User: Fold these one by one.
Assistant:
Number 1:
Amino acid sequence: MTRKQRRLSFIGAAGGVLAVAVGLVLYALTGQIVFFYTPSDIAAHPIAPGTRVRLGGLVEDGSVQHGDNGRVAFSVTDTQHQTKVTYTGLLPDLFREGQGVVAEGVYDANGMVTADNVLAKHDEKYMPPEVAAALKKQGVWEGDKQTAEKTP
Amino acid sequence: MDLSFAEIGHYSLVLALALSLLQSFVPLWGAHRLDGRLMSVGPVVAVVNFGYVALAFAALVAVHVTSDFSVANVYENSNSQIPLLFKITGVWGNHEGSILLWILILALFGALVALFSSNLPDTLRARVLSVQGWIGTAFLLFLLLTSNPFARLNPAPMEGQDLNPVLQDIGLAIHPPMLYLGYVGFSIAFSFAIAALIDGRIDAAWARWVRPWTLLAWLFLTLGIAMGSYWAYYELGWGGFWFWDPVENASFMPWLAGTALLHSAVVMEKRGALKIWTILLAILTFSLSLLGTFIVRSGVLTSVHAFASDPTRGVFILAILTAFIGGALVLFAWRAPGLKQGGIFAPISREGALVFNNLFLIAATATVLVGTLYPLALDTLTSRKISVGSPFYQLTFAPLMVPLLLAVPFGPMLAWKRGDLKGAAQRLAVAMVLSVIAVVLALFLSGAKGVLAPLAVGLGIWLIAGSVVDLTERARLFRGSLSTSFARLTGLPRSAFGSALGHAGLGLTVLGITFVSSWQIEAITSVKPGQSIPLGHYQLTYVETTNGRGPNFRAEVSRFQVTGDNGRSFTMAPSKRFFSARQSATTESALKTIWLSQIYLSLGDRSDDGSLVVRAYYKPLVTLIWLGGVVMAIGGVISLSDRRLRVGAPRKARARKPAAEPVST
């Protein structure tokens, strides 16, 4: 092999691997990403049942019902609309009624989300960013007030 | 306020900034003018600079330990009631302190280069120290202008707000310093690359100087990531060890690129080839470290790692990022074509194998980069919010890893320049047979439910067996008397053991991940006292919940009696902690290690009728995931102790082989 052929074969190999990587990324980006919705988004644009969603909002007051074996049902609200969520597992330590939450799971034909992951605030400073943005959009954001209270 | 540590610290930082500016330009100017006196300023300033940064850091530790709540940083992140350990680790458990730790480690590496590089050509050394000075200046400016850790509060509050309970763990003492030693350690490779580009010349000796520093950074990053993963595993209570969270990816990308750099530097040192590529990798690796700092510290993401979100900080880090990455790449585009290429090799050769490694590692890094940045870009451009989770990486990252891992054992078997693939395969026959046996065994034992997991087991065994074969082949075991083989083995360079351990550690991690992902047993249920949960070969009986107290928290401890089928019995006690200062709670999961496997027990809510929601896992071979990382790091340490790579003792090395120190001034 001449030096030129050698170089071409390396460039070809590199191009091949990169092409495979790009192909994999594009394929995965079309099928494996999860969109974020608020209950109002769902009300405005119906989602196909079976779609994976991240649902964000506040846990509606009085909506949390504990079932057997760690089953929980609650509603997520953005004060305009509500979406019901069922979940089996341990809720985060800071999961509370009236607090921000993100539930990730499958949207079903009954308009409910079967969550396999529920995220709440990490601590009093943390609000899932999508929820904060969605609540700001709805005009019910109180985060700035909270931080103002904390300042000595 | 008679001692005023805070003012001492603040003043030290300002002095360190002045020294960094000096370090940024004087040695560089000296190198340009070939003025030995100006160049000799570099090492002195680098060491003194480290002294002042260390003093500032000590001052911050002092205000934290003495609980001086007149300092905002202490008020917001500490409390008089927390144990001393968390008062100290709380120093970097916040934005300002963690940036100071970043700068401390940068200054430490700068001082180490100054002290252990007297065998470097003077101009290269001067330029390396100047580039370190630029980085130091940028981050000190960032700290002083946007994130002063010594800012005062007036009037001083009586009590602090407490450290985030999630961070009140021994993990905070280990994870960030290790990770930063890795992140920031790659700045040395970056500085060497920039210095070489300015110098306009580069040779194999350059790789020999850069390799130990890269190895050092890499091994700390490996440990830092492994520690972070274990911490998330036991602290977050989800039982997961890796979430493909952007913050995790931020540390994983420099690791992948750094691993590639480690391998390409070998080619450059041994064969003088891949020079330009190695320079580019050094730039990319540190760029990814900077990107990681940006992702984690700028507040573009909200997570437990993002301590505060102040837009000016984000913009400032973005400016640093753009200046350094952009500047470095422009310099590269301008100067790299002028560097002399060297060393030709056939595609099937050790060099070819290492190019293969680089190609796949960089492609994998690129997929992680896309998965990390795409949601951010989409949010910024269209304000559409998406999340990219593990399914994305299973489809992109994993397929790229498979050919790479399959190829790993072949690399060390191939000769430099022109290798013999068939011969390598023959020598690896034992490893192949073992892997096939492992696949069949795993398939049989798991009830033939799927083929992917057994194949992955085979891959792990292939990596481990391949490493063993690598060593036995070098020792020519079974091809002579046992004593000559042993003599050969002990006579091998330590870097041979280092690379074998590195690859074997990778195999262990692959095995751990496969076993946990495929064969863990999970039970989520609610129990009342006296009731049992069956979990594989174990029965977990809920005994009672009692109240306890910690220094700054109240705890509800639930005791479980665990009985194995083999009659073994022990107690596990997961708990919930309530921190009054922050009105927050954490779940402390309980772990019981049985050989390499673990039982993992985490708690949910307790309802009024006394029943408790429990999540229990049996995690087979889970500890291998992190043990593999530790083995990789041990491999790094052994390689580092290799005479040929030793960082220190330059004088001795020069005396031993005078011809091996080309002077390129």
Number 2:
Amino acid sequence: MPDKILEIENISIAYDNKIVMQNFSLQLNKGEHIAVVGASGCGKSSMLRSILGFIPLAQGKILYKGTEISNTNIYNIRNSIAYLPQDITFPCEWVREIVDIIFRIKANNSTYSKEKLYNYFKELGLEETIFDKRISEISGGQRQRVMLAIIALTAKELILLDEPTSALDKDSAQMTLDFLKNLDNKPAIISVTHDCNFAQRCNNIISL
Amino acid sequence: MGTIDISITSLLLGVILMAIPIYFLWKYYTGIVKSTINAVLRMIVQMFLVGLYLKYLFLWDNPWLNVLWLIIMVFVASETSLKRTNLKRKMLMLPLIIGFFTASILIGVYFLGIILKLDNIFDAQYFIPIFGILMGNMLGVNVIGLNTFYYNLQREKSYYYFLLGNGATVDEAITPFVKRALVHSFSPAIANMAVMGLVALPGTMIGQILGGSTPDVAIKYQMMIIVITNSASMLSLMTTLNLSKRATFDKMGAIINPFNEEKKK
């Protein structure tokens, strides 16, 4: 029987009395990668934020490893999740500082293997030297892959990615997919994406 | 050594000097001539009113009245902070009141009772100016600090949620925003402290020398004033920020917009 990581049961999400997502369900097992596709504004990113507890549900429930997510357990559950939002501005200058920011969070064990990070960089087609570069010096695509490598380093059980390939070409997107598939800890992954090629290569596609 | 009084005629002669800045503000079409004249007139009226009520506070020198004055100042400072930051009253009013009150009492009483060793800490001659300067500085720091913190949190919420979504607690996720608020609100005070006495003679010291104190007494008071204003400002800001978290973040850590709707930034 597969290890159930996440179960989304019949959820609806509403902003200011306007429903952005209705009766959505999903089940995600360990090592499975699901792509969620759909038009802009259909609630894909909101669904990821609801899993993290940033947006309250109007209806339905979300279970993490069989336990319903609530305000009493959300912080513990987030310790097992890695989240990469679409647009993010870092208040720092260097790539290495982003790594420090992530590993300064107590839940992320405070230490990391630089060797492993460099291996991840290599698997994602990046040079080791990118670690010592300014964030402003690297391209959008490189930044996306750097961020993926960093959050993969935290070895969480569930990875939530919002448009992980929006700045990548076809080859880099394929490299990213292979990278995620080959992660040692076999995380469950949800990717919200507009990239149909990428979505088709995931284990499952859900269209909204 | 007494202080020479300034007659009303002399005061008016002095105010005429404001014509210099007003002339240049007018000449270069700055558009702030009207607000400058308005500010000068308001200053004159407000200062006469302050002079009037302080005259009676000193004359009666009643501890209860002095404490009542402090309580009123705490409410006025809290109200002014809300007005200048446009933060929601129901979320921030109580944290502000507690922050101002706690910091002024702790630091003010420490200074008057332990440093100055006053027998009567409610003595109007010390109580009113010390708590007055504490309130003024705390107000300035709170306005800049709270505005910087909540404005940046709203503007860069994706970064906050990124940290939270990767296992950070609310305290960990707000740390970069608190850091920026502290740097922003305390940098001017730290810069002033570093050049104190070199670039300019500070206000408290000038006031004391004009009032008849010797320079060696004046510098000690000046140093103590700098120390207590910075300590009280930090204490009030941190108290307010910490207490406001209950209202500005929900139980899952999501940000609840703390600004009134008309805030356009």
